[in-house]
Here is the input.
Amino acid sequence: MERKRKIITFILHIVLIIGAFVMVLPFLWMVLTALKTVSESTSMNPFVFFPKTMQWENFKIVIEQNDFIQLYFNTFAMMALRVFCAVLFSAMAAYAFARLEFPGKNFLFGLVLFQMMVPAQIFVVPQYLMVDKMGFRNTVFALVFPGLVSAFGTFLMRQFFMGLPKELEESARLDGCNIWQTFWKVMLPLTRSGLVALGIFTALFSFKDLMWPLIVNSNSDAATLSSALAKISSAYSVNYPQLMAAAVLAVWPMMLIYMVFQKQFIEGIATSGGKL
Amino acid sequence: MRRDYRRIFGKEWNTVKKVSKKTRNEWYWGWFMVAPTILGLIVLNIIPIFQTLYLSFFKSGAFGKGNIFVGLDNYKRMLSDGQVWHAVKNTIEYTCMVVPVTIVIALLMAVALNGKLKGKGIYRTIYFVPMVAAPAAVTMVWKWLYNSQYGLINHVLNKLGMDSVNWIDDPRVALISISIIGIWSTIGYSMVLLLAGLQEIPRDYYEASDIDGASKVKQFFSITVPLVSPTLFFVLVTSIITAMQVFDVIYMMIDVTSPSYDSTVSLVYLFYNNSFKYSDKGYGSAIVMLLLMIIMVITVIQTKLQKKWVNYM
Amino acid sequence: MKKRLVSAFLCTVLISAMAAGCGNKNTSEQASNNGEENSGGEVTISYACWDSNQAKLLETVADEFEKENPNIKIDIQVNGWDDYWTGLEAAATGGSLPDTFWMHSNNIYYYGSNDQLLDLTDYIEKSDSVDLADYPEGLGQIYNIDGKQYAVPKDYDTIALWYNKTLFDEAKLSYPDETWTWDTLKDAAKKLTKDDGSQYGFCAGLHNQEGYYNFVYQNGGKIITDDKKSGYDDEKTVQGIEEYFSFVKDGLSPEIYDDQARAEAMQNGLCAMGLFGSWNLSGFAETEFMTKNFDCAVLPSANDGTRSTIFNGLGNAISATTEHPDEAWKWVEYLSSKEGQERQAELGTAISAYNGTADKFAEAYPMFNTKCYIDMVDYAQIRPYSNQTSVWEDKAYEILKGAYAGKEDTKAACEKTAKMMNEALGAE
Here is the structure.
């Protein structure tokens, strides 16, 4: 029995390692390329896997030519505000949709689903016109604007609330909590893993948003990392190493954030959930 | 008769006259709690959607001025436009390739990583890594891996004695290449959500079934799948919607000059080209409406079917 | 419990205040972007463009302009080609175009005829330093709609033949020069092609401006006729396209569809020759491999000696809704003056349009035979355009790519293209 188990674990590890290799391969390639010379990067005869000497200079040039501090600031300010709004508003709406009864509920939830079905590209011009009318172009607010509320978040959190046992809530209500208290004190903490997941996804989606920041914030000092990266990619069209260096610089903070938070939301619930 | 009435207006209206103070209180809280989200959605999204619908009946003038009403002309043109049908086919094919593969792999992965495996933290991080990459970087690096002359993938294939594949420009292969990127970049999304869902399953369920002597495979189908089904349902619905709206990667990878353009162009890509490149907003809007209708039908079917397999507490 | 509720509300308020705060900080900036004067009497003029290589050099020009005009600040905004036009369209719809921006022949009619651009006719007439007669004929004409001038030429570009000197030396061939014809090109391409597919003589990517258009005009054909009809059904046009496509059919060129892939095919030694526009120079000059191994020459002539290259240019335009037309004009006037044009040429931004200033551009890239680009102006043909060029240009690619890959007859494909194009032109 023990032996069989060990073999299964071993096979599992092999499969996971192969999978992991496939997942990271493009990133390894990105980092390796960032450290090559231009000729090494496009040479095919011989095919170059590792650079002869590490070209750290590529990073230096990219950093000198772009104000990464400003880009990090813009990106993180945008992400923080979007995460806050999306998590708060979505959780509130989701709880109402999951557990309260009120006239118009199904119709309003229909609106939420409906929004998700429409490709984001159609909102770019109308939302641009709104931001423009308010005079907020080239500001952090403009970056946050389309993410003030989140249909995705509302739907996600609704699923999490619906997965929670009803008894918890009923006992809280019997203890004299009103609706808001039940939501805020009892139910919300229980969906912590969902909240963290939503936070991470909101952060990621806003990080990856490309067309909106490109168009609404045309000033280069109001750009985000990903819109700046798209601009850089048109500038260095034949210089892959510098391009990849910029990509590495744009990606690492997000990886760090995920590593910090993944433990939070995956292992967090096991301790808080079981007790209640 | 009465039943139908109930179904249409919801049971709330039926009891409007005798609502207690408590019920009314619940209504107010309900409205209050959804208000920010609903107001935001109406201003940011719902109004623009109706503007788009409106525009689809017009031959659009330049810069939003001088639109000419043409009735259903844009829709008629769409029906006889071969490229639109290519795009419908490509979009559905892409979805059918990406969604099932992603979800199956992600679910197995999530179950494996939810256990007591050594190094699971590292695996979780690695499988999620593709999610954090900016789209410009992702496309760039894959385009390069796929490069038919000196891409890494073909280099390895050649070393193994196989022929090079024209990953991007071969019309028969291009959509598969794009789907691989799609799967690669969304496994992390599904996996993380499913992991979060698995966390909510009380451990004692498994312990009880361990005592009963149930096998792991049986546990997977009788405990894990039913209990994670609300999350699974969410993942399925959102994955399908996202896949149907595929745009970024195709847009950055396949140019209109490419021979695989016809076999990869998606509905959103067509919409983008018509609306922004050719300044034909009316026709672009009609294409988006077609996509919207397809997605709506699929989503409605899914919500109807969820009662059959999704298990809410 | 009420406290919790209150604190939640406070948070919300706080956040919106924060958002507004960020906004406010930048609103003053924004206002000045729109050209409103603030206390210092300073006006900011925004200048949008799509080439970040050039933008870096234009910053220098702007700094010098600001020194001369201390009350005007120039704010340069860059976006990639596609996003530039998407953004410009959104801005035009909202009535908030940048004060000054680049214009291209593909889009001038759309913007000009819809009252988005400031009519510069009077400004030019009154100006001491700008006279359209100082620019190559035809360049200024691109931006003229019904007698109104909507932009001043900024630069021009032509197409040249690039070749890998190292590969030529290996094959013991003499470098391309002005004596080359289609036949010489083909012979050389044959000698430079290796049977194992590791090296091709020529890079004939599917591209119009940096590709078959040049061959069409060298052969005396036309893409668009003077009375705005398609030229694709012209016998000579078809021959030109057939000649260009024949490199792929004869195995002398790889099939390449992607823009970037064409440059890459040169860089890694896959192709020995290729056609590239002058806007690539600043990028090529930064790449050590290119400066070491490559040089450029005038395009070969057709076998009967007819020469041609595709010629296009950008213009500087001013928004019709700018609040400071006079300051915006000052900037455009400076960019268009002999002095400003010389400065741009020296820095190597692009080939300045002003007659006689182009030689300075050649000096900016001494490592290549840059002058060949300028030599070709005498017989260059303006890139074909109509009111909605991109519509038929894209569809032409779609129809022609089968013939390019050798799967269809080129003549039949050209006839199909002509039919499509005439329909598109009729609908404009």
About this structure: Residues 1 and 268 of chain C are 69 Å apart (CA to CA). The first strand of chain C starts at residue 43 and ends at 49. Residues 1-39 of chain C have pLDDT under 50 and may be disordered. Chain C is about 50% helix and 15% strand.
